[in-house]
From TrEMBL:
Protein name: Guanine nucleotide-binding protein subunit gamma
Domain of life: Eukaryota
Cellular compartments annotated: Membrane
Entry-linked Gene3D superfamilies: Transducin (heterotrimeric G protein), gamma chain
Subunit structure: G proteins are composed of 3 units, alpha, beta and gamma.
Coiled-coil annotated spans: none
SMART domains given in the database record: G_gamma (SM01224)
Annotated PANTHER family: GUANINE NUCLEOTIDE-BINDING PROTEIN SUBUNIT GAMMA
Span list, region Disordered: 1-24
GO biological process: G protein-coupled receptor signaling pathway; pheromone-dependent signal transduction involved in conjugation with cellular fusion
Family from the record: Belongs to the G protein gamma family.
GO CC term, one of those recorded: heterotrimeric G-protein complex
Membrane topology: Peripheral membrane protein
Length: 92
């Protein structure tokens, strides 16, 4: 074999690499565990309650994008209509 090449790494170095990999794996699992605990502590509500909340908000908050509830509005009052200016050109 040519000098400078070895068939195996230094046993001490291999042990350090394995330990650092184990530390990395432990840190990742600890972080994952922490995130899962946070998810578990998050408040949950049933879908039916969330749907009722959305319906209540839609009925109590005027939104021009829901014409079935609020009816159509004049184009001058609609914030979503593109307002046309008096001329065809703008000079800067």
């Amino acid at each position: 074999m040519p000098s400078g090449y070895s068939s195996r790494e230094d046993p001490g170095q291999m042990k350090k690499n394995k330990q650092s990999m184990a530390d990395l794996k432990l840190r990742r699992l600890t972080e994952l565990n922490s995130r899962l605990r946070e998810d578990l502590e998050r408040e949950r509500i049933p879908v039916s309650q969330a749907a009722k909340s959305i319906i209540s908000y839609t009925n109590s908050t005027k939104d021009f994008m829901v014409p079935s509830i609020w009816g159509s509005i004049p184009k001058g009052e609609d914030p979503y209509v593109v307002q046309t200016s008096g001329g065809c050109c703008t000079v800067m």
